[in-house]
Amino acid sequence: MDIVMDGQALNAFLAAEFPQVADDYRIETVGPQGLVARLRVGNQHLRPGGTVSGPSIFALADIGIYCAILSRIGPVALAVTTNASVDFMRKPAAGRDLLAECRILKLGRSLAVAEALVFSDGTEDPAARCSMTYSIPPKRA
User: From which residue to which does any coiled coil extend (predicted)?
Assistant: First the structure.
């Protein structure tokens, strides 16, 4: 699969189309196998007990996978999540950003299937594993 949007283009797309979250998330790298997305963890992402909340972990995986798909198909704002599964495996490390290593498993004309492993920055064991399916709208003539 050819890369049609690099990290700079994806970050600019997020800033333009999703300004409400663009400051929290950043695409770090884009490569032939997928991409790495970062959640800049702040107080708004924490739950009682000082750990990153499940919804914040889900959002990182969703944004990362969405951008992985866009990196191959271009800026299609209306591609949407149609299925998602998250396994929370361990508590994220305190005081660290989260990274999602995202990989596209299948990219068709109307559906894409991808996965993300979410890690605390600097750790080897994943905090979560996510699998998602996206619906890709038909190209307009």
Answer: none
Q: Is the CB of residue 39 less than 8 Å from the CB of residue 45?
A: yes
Tokens of 108: 């068709």
Alpha-carbon gap, residue 110 to 119, rounded angstroms: 30
DSSP 87-112: EE-SPPPTT--EEEEEEEEEE-SSEE
Domain range summary for the chain, segments of one domain joined by +? 7-135
pTM greater than the 0.85 cutoff: yes
More confident call, 117 vs 139: 117
Domain 7-135: CATH superfamily, name plus number: Hotdog Thioesterase (3.10.129.10)
Q: What is the pLDDT of residue 77?
A: 83
Whether the Cβ atoms of residue 106 and residue 134 lie closer than 8 Å to each other: no
pLDDT digits (tens, 9 = 90+) for 74-85: 998 899 999 999
Could you tell me how many helices (H) and strands (E) the chain has, helices first? 3, 8
Find out whether 69 and 115 touch, Cβ atoms under 8 Å: no
Neighbours of 108 (CB within 10 A): 8
List, for residues 97-127, the tens digit of each pLDDT value.
999 999 999 999 999 999 999 999 999 999 9
